[in-house]
Specification:
globular; alpha/beta; single chain; 5-stranded parallel β-sheet
Length: 520
C-alpha cells in the first residue's frame, strides 16, 4: 500500500463560484469554444514562425545556466509548427509554494498527455508561466510548515523574479533542525537551488525543471525584452488609446448579470512601469499625461510613445492584460486556471481580438492523504463522494452511515404514505366520522415522528458512535476544510521533505468528469 492516498477532483462544492454549464458559458461568450481541434487550428494560423524563433531563442537563454536540464528537449520541439503549449501559471514562491502550485503543474502535464493521444501528429508541451514581474513580496516571502507560518527576512522591494535568494538556505536549515525523517535527496535539491542560483526566478526554474522536467514541463519567464517587443502593439493600444478598458468593463458588467462577482477591475492603462532599479510602479493616465504612482515619473503622450518604442521591457502588464501577453508569445491552446483565475479570464474574453484565446479549463485538485487517515474515511461506503460538501451536509451523511438505519423512521415513512393516501380516499365518501379518524391518524404520525427523533438522539449519544464521528470529522477538517483549504495551507516543501511523498510529481489520477467544477 502507498504511504499516501491521492484524492483527485474539483467538485463544484469545493469552488462554489457559479453553477451554470460549460455550454452556457460558451454561448454567452464567457469562455472560448472548448473544441481542441479548433483551438489548434486558430493558433497554428496566428502564431508566426518569427514568434516561434523568438520563443525558442529566449527559452534557450533562460535555461542556459542549468547544466543538465531535464526539459531541454521540449525547447527544441517548440521549433516545429506542429508543437503547442498547455499552460498554467503562478507568482513564484519560496520553496515552490503551496500545494495548489503543484496541482496546477500536474493538471497541465495530464492535459498535455491526453491531447497527444487525441492528436498524435502534434506535440503538446506543459508550460509553467512564472509571474516574475509581480511585486507583492508579502504573498510569497513565507512558508507554512505543519501549520506554522515561518517568514523569510529579506530587503527586496522590486519585482519578485529579481529577488536575491540570500538567506533561504539558512531558513531551510532552521526548518529541518531537530526533525527526524528528512528526505535528504530533496533537501540537497533545494540547497543546490538556493546556493547556485542568485535570483528567485532562476532558482525556481531549476527546481521545477528537476522535479517536473522529465514530464516535459517548461518554465517561461515573460520578463524579457524580446518578448516585450512582440507585445508592443498591445502596449500602444492600451496605453495610448485606452483600447481594452471598455471591453473588460462591458464583459464584467455582463457576467454580473449572471450572479458572478468580478475578480479584477480594469483601468484606463493596464500597465506598470519597471524602473531601472527594478521597482514596479503603476502607470496612470490623467489630463493627457502619464505618471507613476509612487516613483513620481511622468511623460507626455509623445514621450510615452517614444519610451514604449525604445524600452518595451520597462512596461509590465497588470492582471487584466497578462493573459493577452502570454497568448501573444506562446503557441498556447489551453490554460489551466484556478477558480479565481477562471472568473477573471471570463472578464477579459473580449480583449482577444487579433490573438486567439486559449481553451479555458479548471485545474484539478490533488490531495495527498495519509493512508491511516484515508482508511478511517473509506471504511464507510459512499462517504468519499461527500468529502467536498459543506461540514453540515457532510455530518448528516456521516451520521446516517455510522448510526445505521432508524427503524422507527422507516415505520413512520411507511405509515405516513399509507395513512395519508387512505384518508384522502375515504374523504371522498363525505362521512363526518372520518374527520375524527384523520385527526387520530395525524396525532399518531406526530407521536411516531417524535419517537423516531428521540431514538436517534439516544443513539447519537452513544460514546462509541460519537468517537467514530469525531475521528472522521477531524480528517474532514484537516484535508477538506472550505475555509482553510489543504492545498493552500500545506506546502510542497513539507510533502517532499517531511512526508517523504515518493513519486508525488508523477501522480495524476481522475477522469474528466471531476474537473468540471464551474462548468458543470
Amino acid at each position: 500500500m502507498p504511504e499516501n492516498i491521492v484524492y483527485t477532483g474539483t467538485p463544484k462544492e469545493y469552488f462554489p463560484k457559479f453553477t451554470f454549464q460549460e455550454k452556457e458559458l460558451v454561448a454567452n461568450g464567457f469562455i472560448p469554444n472548448p473544441e481542441y481541434r479548433l483551438s489548434i487550428e486558430r493558433k497554428a494560423q496566428s502564431f508566426t514562425a518569427e514568434k516561434r524563433a523568438v520563443l525558442v531563442s529566449v527559452l534557450n537563454d533562460q535555461y542556459s545556466n542549468i547544466g543538465v536540464s531535464k526539459a531541454k528537449g521540449s525547447i527544441k520541439l517548440l521549433s516545429s509548427e506542429n508543437t503547442f503549449t498547455v499552460t498554467t501559471g503562478q507568482q513564484i514562491h519560496i520553496f515552490l509554494g503551496p500545494m495548489y502550485v503543484h496541482n496546477k503543474i500536474l493538471s497541465a502535464i495530464e492535459l498535455a498527455k491526453k491531447l497527444k493521444e487525441q492528436f498524435p501528429k502534434n506535440t503538446f508541451i506543459p508550460t509553467f508561466w512564472m509571474a516574475t514581474e509581480d511585486h507583492d513580496m508579502e504573498e510569497i516571502d513565507h512558508i507554512n510548515l505543519f501549520g506554522e507560518n515561518v517568514p523569510w527576512k529579506h530587503e527586496h522591494d522590486g519585482i519578485s523574479g529579481d529577488c536575491p535568494t540570500k538567506g533561504l538556505v539558512d531558513l531551510m536549515d532552521a526548518l529541518v533542525q531537530g526533525r527526524n525523517g528528512i528526505n535528504k535527496e530533496y533537501q540537497r535539491l533545494f540547497k543546490q537551488a538556493y546556493e547556485n542560483f542568485s535570483t528567485l526566478a532562476d532558482a525556481t526554474r531549476f527546481l521545477i525543471d528537476q522535479l517536473y522536467g522529465d514530464q516535459g514541463v517548461l518554465v517561461i519567464d515573460g520578463n524579457d525584452q524580446r518578448f516585450k517587443e512582440l507585445f508592443k502593439p498591445s502596449m500602444i493600444k492600451d496605453i495610448l488609446n485606452q483600447g481594452f478598458n471598455k471591453l473588460i468593463d462591458d464583459q464584467s458588467d455582463l457576467i454580473k448579470k449572471y450572479g458572478v462577482k468580478s475578480i479584477i477591475s480594469s483601468r484606463k492603462t493596464n500597465f506598470f512601469y519597471i524602473t531601472k532599479n527594478g521597482i514596479r510602479d503603476r502607470l496612470d493616465f490623467k489630463n493627457q499625461n502619464y505618471t507613476t504612482q509612487n516613483t513620481l515619473m511622468n511623460w507626455s503622450i509623445a514621450s510615452i510613445k517614444e519610451e514604449i518604442e525604445k524600452h518595451p521591457e520597462r512596461f509590465s502588464p497588470n492582471v487584466s492584460l497578462r493573459p493577452l501577453y502570454q497568448e501573444t508569445i506562446l503557441p498556447n491552446i489551453a490554460y489551466l486556471a484556478g477558480p479565481s483565475e477562471y472568473v477573471y479570464w471570463m472578464q477579459i474574453q473580449k480583449i482577444f481580438e487579433e490573438v486567439p484565446a486559449p481553451i479555458l479549463k479548471l485545474r484539478k485538485t490533488y490531495i495527498y492523504i495519509l493512508e491511516k487517515d484515508w482508511m478511517k474515511v473509506s471504511r464507510y461506503a459512499g462517504l468519499e463522494s461527500a468529502l467536498f460538501s459543506e461540514d453540515g451536509l457532510f455530518l448528516e451523511e456521516l451520521t446516517s452511515i455510522i448510526s445505521g438505519e432508524n427503524p422507527i423512521e422507516v415505520i413512520w415513512e411507511e405509515q405516513h404514505s399509507k395513512l395519508l393516501d387512505d384518508i384522502e380516499k375515504l374523504n371522498t365518501l363525505n362521512i363526518p366520522n372520518l374527520k375524527a379518524l384523520s385527526s387520530i391518524s395525524n396525532n399518531y404520525l406526530d407521536d411516531l415522528k417524535m419517537a423516531s427523533k428521540e431514538f436517534g438522539n439516544n443513539r447519537m449519544n452513544n460514546p462509541e458512535i460519537q468517537s467514530k464521528i469525531a475521528a472522521v470529522m477531524k480528517i474532514k477538517k484537516r484535508y477538506f476544510d472550505h475555509k482553510n483549504k489543504w492545498e493552500r495551507k500545506t506546502y510542497l516543501f513539507e510533502q517532499l521533505l517531511f512526508k517523504n511523498s515518493k513519486d508525488i510529481v508523477n501522480t495524476t489520477y481522475g477522469g474528466d468528469d471531476l474537473i468540471h467544477i464551474a462548468c458543470g
